[in-house]
Amino acid sequence: MSASSLLIQNAQILLPSGEYILGDVEVQAGKIIRVGDSLSESIGETTVIDATGLTLLPGVIDPQVHFREPGLEHKEDLFTASCACVRGGVTSFLEMPNTRPLTTTQAALDDKLNRASQKCLANYGFFIGATPENLPDLLSANPTPGIKIFMGSMHGDLLVDEESALDPIFANGDRLIAVHAEDQNRIRDRRAQFAGSTDPATHSQIQDNQAALNATQLALKLSKKYGRRLHILHMSTAEEADLLRHEKPAWVTAEVTPQHLLLNINDYEKLGSLLQMNPPIRSPHDNEVLWQALRDGVIDFIATDHAPHTLEEKSQSYPNTPSGMPGVETSLALMLTQAKGGRCSVAQVANWMSTAVAKAYRIPNKGLIEPGYDADLVLVDLEHYHPVLREEVVTKCGWSPFEGWNLTGWAQVTIVGGQVAYDRGTLNTAVRGQALRFGS
Ligand code: DOR
Known about the structure:
About 30% of the residues lie in helices and about 20% in strands. The protein is of the alpha/beta class. Strands 1, 2, 3, 4, 5, 15, 16, 17 and 18 form a 9-stranded mixed β-sheet that branches. Strands 9-10-11-12-13-14 form a 6-stranded parallel β-sheet. It is globular and about 65 Å long. (4S)-2,6-dioxohexahydropyrimidine-4-carboxylic acid (DOR) binds next to loops.
């Protein structure tokens, strides 16, 4: 075995079939080589991990994050964010283009890839952002998981809210289009109606369910017109879930965030503007309908929309407060806690947070524990509970909307490309992830 060999012993291993075996996984040169019963240590230097009592899952692929570099590093940067990732069991991420400068050209994309190669502990991919004018960039950008369109909740160049500007983007090219679906015209009108309110809870009334539904309907219409791959980002409403339940072409996918499943408008009282995000947090009824849609496969997978803002920024008065909350450190434990509580199975969580994401974005060799696959893995502890504590969060913004939640399924060991990036509280900051590839 080479120096990069790893032997994970005595783990409860989730197999691609959804079944478990109690056994070992051997990793060489970043790949899973063998999965089986009592594999013996080969000759040579091997790192052995005793996984007794732990469950081995494919590493989380978080398909929607905002990591703020370049340009907004006072909130987060690619190093701090990727540290938070591996603490949370996230081994790969897909990052959004609303950095400064905006990621709307190949040069900006290359700059992010270059920065990430130098400082990211996790594997990385970056969306190219659509503007009303950059179609040639959208057609040629490489490598990228897809085109991000902000149909609403954005200002400046990244807002593409008119059908006349959206149509050519859907009509040309064939790569995946991921939409932030909110109707900007409706938001504008309703903002005027609620002018003067300083209550963060009005955010969910201004950017209401109808605003989300209008935009999702328009994106779906254009996707069907051109047979274009479409992904609905952070779907938040019962109405959108019902729409997709009745009308979801095979080339359309959707995601939901843990916060849209687990938090609702009743939480404004406790969290205030920390709960403010786009699309907004909805009602308990929306929570339930989104859960059902996820379990039924109407919603395909989970993303965090990790969108860190400092506590100082969040402590201004609404509507001057920025929208967004961090998520990469807590998403896996939150979902596994739900699985332990009987709302879903651990195998479903692994599918929603890894396997199904790799499939939708056509990321080769990731998302399963199988010989030949990349050794992006997470060992979780499903026996013990530990609360989310502000003093333990790694994200630069320094807070979590889930503080105080008592969770199980915390990542104990996170492995990126066969390297141990996180081990029971200790980050190995020398580990570097790789650029993700995306099939066409
Ligand atoms: O709440 C949000 N914040 N939603 C987004 O789509 C953007 C994000 C951010 O970048 O802060």
